[in-house]
Amino acid sequence: MALNLAEPALLRTQNLIDDQWRDAGLGARLSVSDPATGEAFACVPDSDAGDARLAVDAAAAAFPAWSRRTARERAQLIKRWHALILQHQEDLARIISTEQGKPLKEARGEVLYGASYVEWFAEEATRICGDIVAEAVPGRKLLVLKEPVGVVAAITPWNFPLAMIARKIAPALAAGCTVVAKPAEDTPLTALALAWLAQQAGIPAGVLNMVTASREHTPGVVDAWLLDSRVRKITFTGSTPVGKHLARESAATLKKLSLELGGNAPFIVFEDADLDAAVDGLMASKFRNGGQTCVCPNRVYVHEAVHDDFVERLAQRVGALHVGPATDEAAQIGPMINARAVDKIARHVDDAVTRGARVVTGGKRVRTEDGPHYYAPTVLVDATPAMELSCEETFGPVAPIFRFRDEAEVIRDANDTPFGLAAYFYSNDVRRIWRVAQALETGMVGINEGAIAAEAAPFGGVKESGYGREGSRHGLDDYMHTKYLCQGQLG
Ligand code: NAP
């Protein structure tokens, strides 16, 4: 597999620690495979706790000087990084597609999306403000400062290999923190390319350190960070069980935490909705990235009065989606990330069919002669809460349709999950819009809109989808603490 990059130096296959590209201390390597074919095409370090500690040594040493730079200086360096990401956007998109499998068009979109957070936080760096508070006692001044928390450990998943790590590193650097980061086993190359671009941008030695590890060695790397009191914050995007593990284990040193975890998003189509807009919204939110998105609708509730009409329109669109490798410019759905992912999708569909769901389109593995990880875009009807896919993220191109009768019933069902990341609904009744938006127990709500993420908006969940926000003016707060100064004897 040749990547054919215009800038071959973007293909980094070593860790970045203290401005040096290094192999893992013990020399172990991990293969990176193309999900379309299952073939390995690169190797990166399979790091362990020793490498993780070296990265913290570098980040801790770099912190005092980096945090003392003016916000303007930090912003300028982050802007330079942003410009280099844009300059190399086509190469970055190729790396994303090759290691993650998403169609090239979507990978190009991800580069721009991730870059938008980098630019946003470069700008926000210069707007960090504290307060001067009215004194309660004469002769005193009360001031509130915002300070960077210190060394931040960032751990990210494979589904958006560039955007997930960029929207952690950028606010951390903007706030004045230094970073140790570990991308997912399946997608280390995009993260390493970003680290190389940060180095080219002039981000100083030790400010950003990146180590890669296999699924087997990841707990060792992350445990080293959890135990290290110099690491003051963990920022994690991934599954809820791993998020809970990090919350438990970081308690020993009481680290600050941001947890962007799993979802189980409802998508509700009321009887007064614009059905074409609702189908468009579902196509955008459900089938992007092959359905491997934390904010993907996992349960589609359609009012009985419009159910059959909606299903017919949706099935036509879903049945026409083109499945293929990222290299096929016409592809709309790529391969799933790995065998575990495609097995889970098949298990969910089989379980639903056994419990009474009907497949309207899809419902099977496809292109098996081309690669092991393709699954057909699928619409199921007659879904019920008893099915596995109603309680657990399917993380694939499967839209299960639940029929409902009234608003109270659908809100109860939509909220009947431990998760609370995103929800969507379509309605043209202005009173219902406010009622439903307030009743949904999620961190984000799309109202007559299926694509809701933006760098200017706070992204994050409630309940077991985690806490903390990425993007918006709130996104920097997660990387700073508040210090209160009281100066007396001024009267
Ligand atoms: P995951 O298994 O939790 O992995 C995420 C990251 O955690 C990876 O870097 C992984 O490393 C690491 N990890 C795994 N086990 C660990 C352990 N015991 N200790 C420390 N780190 C560990 O999740 P995933 O399957 O990659 O990603 C899918 C999940 O992420 C879904 O639930 C999805 O909803 C969620 N997600 C949430 C958001 C959001 O913003 N809320 C965004 C995207 C995805 P390895 O790769 O080496 O295992």
Span between N and C termini? 74 Å
* Derived structural class: alpha/beta
Strand content: 15-25%
What is the gyration radius calculated from CA atoms? 23 Å
Coarse shape: globular
* Overall pLDDT confidence: 97
Strand arrangement in the largest pleated sheet: 14-15-16-13-12-18-19
Provide an overview of this structure.
The protein has 491 residues and is of the alpha/beta class. Helices cover 37% and strands 21% of the residues. It is built from 14 helices and 22 strands. It has a 7-stranded mixed sheet with strand order 14-15-16-13-12-18-19, with helices on both faces. Strands 9-8-7-10-11-21 form a 6-stranded mixed sheet, with helices on both faces. Strands 5-6-22 form a 3-stranded antiparallel sheet, with no helix packed on it. A hairpin with a 7-residue loop joins β5 and β6. α1 crosses α7 and α4 packs parallel to α5. The longest helix is centred in the N-terminal third of the chain and has 22 residues. The structure holds NADP nicotinamide-adenine-dinucleotide phosphate. The site of NADP nicotinamide-adenine-dinucleotide phosphate (NAP) has 27 residues, from α7 and α8.
